[in-house]
Amino acid sequence: MSAILLDEKIVHYEVLGRGRPIIFLHSWVGSWRYWVPAMQTAAMSFRAYALDLWGFGDTAHDPFRYSLEQQVNLLDRFMLEMGMRKVALVGHGLGALVAILFARKYPDLVDRLMAINVPLDQKSVAMRLRSPASPADLADWLLSKDPVTEPARADAPKGDPQAIITSLNDLNGLDLLSFMDTMFTPCLVVHGQNDPAVETPSYERMLSMTEQVHQIVLENSGHFPMLDEGPKFNRLMTDFLGLESGESPRDMQLKDEWKRRVR
């Protein structure tokens, strides 16, 4: 177990590989642990970090740090402690919100961003997620019971329900869509078509955004595409990370596998 202390409070993380840094940020259910297969893939070319946000996994529980602003501050201070100047971010759900807000605040520190099952407004979040009975109940709702999902299911009970509620309440009043309309950081937005927790934005709305934003929907995935379609997700991530710095993720449409199907 690796950890740093921020204001005498533990922040847990794990790391694999060597090279340029990439940071994986988890969703409202689980912890860093379900990122291991994706980290192993990324670690062939990157130094892959995954950390537990405030109130999740083995990072400290502190209700005063559960706001999205404080989670963004955690990422900033983590990068400073690790001596990182510029990173790629892969965020899922809550982690995707943190990554987008971090890129808005510190655009020069983010080379590219992959946002998975991210709610771009509060209306797109299911009520069951906004007022959870418990993280374990959310795990039963969002995850199948098999060995692939066990890392997320096992760590779900460590999450503080108040950390979930606070972060989603902070969505109210945020204008993420307007920010992404003018985003300069290459951003790949990935959604599982069968996600019951977060509504998929319309393709037409995403297409209207800046050329640096591109959406791909994985048709056989729910809230956890990295677990539901692991090999396909890892190929998608590898292709995105392989783009030249500043290159638009819309160039990925040239590959047959990532072309949007028109029905």
In short:
The chain has 263 residues and is of the alpha/beta class. The chain has helices at residues 36-42, 68-82, 94-105, 127-130, 135-142, 150-155, 161-169, 176-181, 203-207, 225-228, 230-241; strands at 2-6, 9-16, 20-25, 46-51, 87-92, 110-116, 187-192, 213-218.
How is this structure best described in words?
This protein is of the alpha/beta class. The N and C termini lie far apart (about 50 Å). Strand 5 (about 85-90), helix 3 and strand 6 (about 110-115) form a beta-alpha-beta unit. Helix 1 (about 35-40) packs parallel to helix 11 (about 230-240) and helix 2 crosses helix 3 (about 95-105). The protein has an 8-stranded mixed sheet with strand order 1-2-4-3-5-6-7-8, with helices on both faces. The chain has one domain: 3-Layer(aba) Sandwich (Rossmann fold). Helices cover about 35% and strands about 20% of the residues.
